[in-house]
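Recap from last week: sequence in, structure out.
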Amino acid sequence: MPTELPVDMLNRPLLEIVFRRKNNALFKKLARKTHFNVKEVEALAVIHRKITQTLDPMTRSVFRDILHSGLDFTENIRHLYIDRIFSVFDKKNVLQIPLEQWIEGLSIILRGNLNERIHFAFSIYDFMHTNKLKKEQIFPTMRGCLIKLQTDEDPDEAVKDLIDSLLKKLDVDRDGVISEDEFHRAVKERNLLLLECMGPVFPSRVARRTFLSTFTDRLGQF
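Predicted structure tokens:
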């Protein structure tokens, strides 16, 4: 999505006006549920409308392109985390991102409070939906995110060592798995950097501010 184009520049301004008026009640509801005001919700709805009009439904592949170009997500092996972010956005499991889920998801990754971000990150890492992170399910995700070592050291062994170190920090009750409560407590009480300890799931501060600046002047300290 080219950032140089004004987000409200539609080919048919009259249709845009109709779209805004028709969905005004929905925009107000989303403003109450998210960290966006009504004008920001409206602007994001216009972005979603433009994307779906140009590229058809916001499917997984379209979503990947948006995160790569619009939020500067670095591509990793098999798009693993981007695909997980798509799945978390896609609450109804319809294999595309409807308008409401688009705005609710962006609310968290752009302006979410710490509790929301912790829950979101854990949901990304918990791709087996067990509410617990086991060593064997952490390994393939972290392996895909690490830069290939430039030494004779076995990269798999390096990943295993890193996971062992993480378990020592996060697995409070030493049962061999990381629960969401343990993850939550570790991030809030020990180190905020643990929020993305298993791979990047949020856009960088620069990317967030750049994206926000395309439709609002409320950049803030998010």
